[in-house]
C-alpha cells in the first residue's frame, strides 16, 4: 500500500473514531440522566462498535506494515477489560449507583484512548 493511501486511510479512521467517541460521550450523558437497560444497550453497543473498529484498523495497519517492527499490544486484554467494565456499569444501573457508573465510564474512556493510541 502506498504511503499516501495509508495516510488517507489513517485520517479517515481518526475522523470516524472521533465521531464514535463523541457518540459514546453523548450516550453516556443520556445514560446518566436516564439509567435504564435500553440506554445501557445503546451505550454498550457504541463502545463495542468503537473497539471493533479500532481492532480492525490495528490489523489493517499491521498487515500493511508487515515488514516493519511494530510494538506488540494485547488487544484482547483491553477488550476484556472493556467488557468487564460494561458488566460493572450494568450492575450500577441495576443498583442506581451513578457515582460508580461515572468511575467505570472514566476507566472505559481511558481504554478507548489506548485503542486510539495503538493505531
Walkthrough of the structure:
This protein has 119 residues and is mainly alpha-helical. The protein is built from 4 helices and no strands. It has helices at 3-33, 37-64, 75-95, 98-118. Helix 1 (3-33) packs antiparallel against helix 4 (98-118), helix 2 (37-64) packs parallel to helix 4 (98-118) and helix 3 runs antiparallel to helix 4 (98-118). The mean pLDDT is 84.
Layout of helices and strands:
Blueprint: H1 3-33, H2 37-64, H3 75-95, H4 98-118
Relevant terms:
single chain, 119 residues, mainly alpha
Pick out the low-confidence regions. none
User: What percent of the residues sit in helical stretches (DSSP H or I)?
Assistant: over 70%
Number of helices: 4
What structural class should be given to the helix and strand makeup?
mainly alpha
The total strand number stands at: 0
Radius of gyration: 16 Å
Q: Please give the oligomerization state of what you see.
A: single chain
The main pleated sheet reads as: none
Shape: elongated
Distance between the termini: 17 Å
Estimated share of beta-strand residues: under 5%
- Give the overall average pLDDT: 84
Q: What letter string, H or E per element, gives the SSE order?
A: HHHH
Gist of the model:
The protein is mainly α and 119 residues long. Helices cover 85% and strands 0% of the residues.
